[in-house]
Amino acid sequence: MAQPTSDTTSPEQPAPWPTADVEQAQRQCRANLTATGIEGPKVDRYCGCVSESLQARFTPEEVDRMQREHDPSDDDAPRPPKLATALNQCSAVLESQ
Q1: pTM for this structure?
Q2: Which of 2, 45, 50, 57 is the most buried (most CB within 10 A)?
């Protein structure tokens, strides 16, 4: 029986994101945090955590689709629930010094 190669992905692990998509997600994250007044090294740590969390769970297309289809006025949630769950694991970074 053949062993899976390193370029195959399991159903639980999406394919690696293109560099441009990773960079775009991190730029958007930094801009969002800076707009709320959060600055400093924790921004880079948080955005790195967010990037890794999203890449581990979703493809860039899935993230885009969830954001397009989500209406925050429907449930007063600023993010789609699946994205919120993925990002909440990184909130401790923002709470740290």
Answers
A1: 0.76
A2: 50
Average pLDDT across the chain, whole number: 84
The residue written with tokens 């600055």 in the block is: 39
CA distances, 84 to each of 16, 18, 19, 91 (Å): 21, 22, 23, 10
Written as one string, the DSSP assignment of 25-41 is HHHHHHHHHHHTT--SH
CA distances 92 to 16, 31, 49, 72, Å, are 25, 19, 10, 24
Looking at residue 13, what DSSP letter applies? S
CA distance 41 to 25: 17
pLDDT for residue 3 is more than 80: no
